[in-house]
Design a protein that fits this description.
globular, 15 helices, alpha/beta, seven-stranded mixed sheet, PyrdxlP-dep_Trfase_major, Aminotrans_V_dom, about 15% strand, pyridoxal phosphate, about 400 residues
Length: about 400
């Protein structure tokens, strides 16, 4: 496989914490590589030495690199990229910018992220917008046949989470894109868990808008995110507020929004984080997203295989093409207790709560479950060690 070309020893050397722990919580927050941390700290030190405004002026080239790095990562024009404080903020801003009227329908999926779905519920309550959930098929993917059947002239938006935080399933984003284009419907893709681990191209996907987080598989800092807005879509979107970054005050009684995706940005933002996130995007591109994707899939498949061989462990993913997220349960063991036990043995994982996945978990009959999410810098030996520690708990 192409993943064999990856120099994991060098990548682990760029990730100092690998020597002290097993980090299988990359779907929560991945470990940043040294070049990303260096870029972050260097700008913070510059702010300390010369002042925040002055450091910002001195780093304009590094800030501008952010847009070019994400254009390269997603296969789009840098003018279609905006920096965001986090992915939820990006997703919410785009939702608020879509020209919705009473009676419009929004289609979403069974695996939708909790914050996204609660925002949709709020919109339904306050603006008389109807929200309809498309169930998953037997493999856990959004059912494309049902989606097709539910579309009519009232549907204004399809909002899909590409890779759910509670499952390793990869939803068929490109197939949904074809359906959205055919029916001329806005298409918003939440790529928080897919960007950085799956080779993405927005033209291949066919989405009008895409949002993502810096801290997850991109290995960027916390408190960073981004959005993509297709150039042909931008004129149809009205940002919910204006800012000195997003617009120009043209006359005493008027202003004009920018003609690129930065119309959604704020002038005041986390400059060090923006610079470091651009470095993280470059780092991924330089490694090769196709190689990264292969490596993560190889490790996740190995982990699932070993877990399935362990008595008393149930793996919850199914399907042929899965991501680096692996969810599992241990018979008779509380998920939080298993999580804490692993943490005591220097293994980072997370717990996926039923409460924040009610659409999906109620349908699947799942309680809280454990989640292990691998990245390309993880090693096969770490999977063996993880399974040995876990088996001692069973």
């Amino acid at each position: 496989m192409r993943s064999q070309a990856m120099n994991t020893d060098l990548l682990r050397a760029h990730t100092p914490a690998c020597h002290d722990l097993i980090h299988f919580n990359n779907a929560g927050a991945a470990l940043s590589p040294q070049p990303v941390s260096d870029a972050l700290f260097e700008h913070l030190l510059l702010e300390q030495r010369v002042g925040g405004y002055e450091a910002g002026e001195a780093s304009l080239s590094a800030q501008d690199n952010f847009y070019h790095a994400f254009g390269r990562l997603l296969g789009c024009n840098p003018r279609e990229i905006a920096y965001m404080e986090n992915a939820t903020r990006a997703w919410t801003l785009l939702l608020q910018a879509i020209p919705l009227v009473h009676g419009d329908r929004i289609i979403t999926g069974q695996s939708e992220y909790a914050s996204n779905y609660m925002t949709l519920l709020h919109l339904a309550k306050t603006r008389n917008i109807r929200v309809e959930v498309i169930p998953n098929d037997s493999n856990g993917h959004i059912c494309l046949q049902t989606l097709q059947q539910k579309l009519d002239e009232d549907v204004r938006l399809i909002a899909l989470t590409h890779v759910p935080s509670q499952s390793g399933v990869i939803h068929p984003a490109a197939e949904v894109g074809k359906i959205a284009r055919k029916h001329r419907i806005f298409y918003l893709l939440d790529a928080c868990q897919s960007v950085g681990q799956i080779d993405l191209n927005v033209d291949d996907i066919g989405c009008d808008m895409l949002t993502g987080s810096g801290r997850k598989y991109l290995r960027g800092p916390r408190g960073t995110g981004f959005m993509y807005v297709r150039q042909s879509t931008q004129d149809y979107l009205e940002p919910p507020s204006a800012d000195l970054q997003s617009a120009s005050w043209t006359r005493k009684d008027s202003f004009k929004f920018r003609d690129d995706a930065r119309r959604f940005e704020n002038w005041e933002h986390y400059v060090a984080g923006k610079i470091a996130l651009g470095v993280a995007a470059d780092y991924a591109c330089d490694l090769g997203m196709n190689i990264i994707e292969d490596r993560i899939r190889l490790l996740a498949s190995l982990l699932r295989e070993k877990l399935r061989q362990m008595p008393g462990v149930e793996v919850h993913e199914q399907g042929e093409k899965l991501s680096g997220i692996v969810t599992f349960s241990c018979d008779g063991k509380d998920a939080s207790a298993v999580h804490q036990y692993l943490r005591e043995h220097h293994i980072n994982t997370s717990v996926v709560r039923h409460q924040v996945n009610q659409l999906d978990f109620s349908k699947r009959g799942l309680p809280d479950v454990n989640r292990a999410s691998v990245h390309y810098y993880n090693a096969e030996q770490e999977i063996d060690a993880f399974c040995r520690v876990l088996s001692a708990r069973l």
